[in-house]
TrEMBL record:
Pfam families from the UniProt entry: ThiS (PF02597)
Protein name: MoaD/ThiS family protein
Organism: Altererythrobacter rubellus
Gene3D superfamilies tied to this protein: 3.10.20.30
Superkingdom, taxonomy of origin: Bacteria
InterPro entries in UniProt: Beta-grasp_dom_sf, Mopterin_synth/thiamin_S_b, ThiS/MoaD-like
Length: 80
């Protein structure tokens, strides 16, 4: 099994896909090195959040996704 990474909003446009599977376990450095450079650049910004297994991580560098986990990459939301 693997970890499913969901690319949401503008990150989906940069990645060119809605989701992608990566080998488990997946940590922050593994994620950064596995995605396109344009996506990695966005992920490093403080305004982008990461959720793992349905919980937004307070520190995205603490990512430790295991087999079957879903990781959502959450771009900032705008609106009024």
């Amino acid at each position: 099994m693997a970890v499913t990474v969901l690319f949401l909003g503008p990150l989906r446009d940069l990645a060119g896909v809605e989701s992608r599977e990566f080998s488990a376990p997946l940590d922050w450095e593994g994620l950064i090195s596995s995605v396109a450079p344009e996506v990695a650049e966005q992920l490093r910004q403080a305004r982008v959040n990461v959720a793992c297994a349905g919980k937004v991580l307070a520190d995205k560098a603490s990512l430790n996704a295991q087999e079957g986990d879903e990781v959502a990459l959450l771009p900032p939301v705008s609106g009024g």
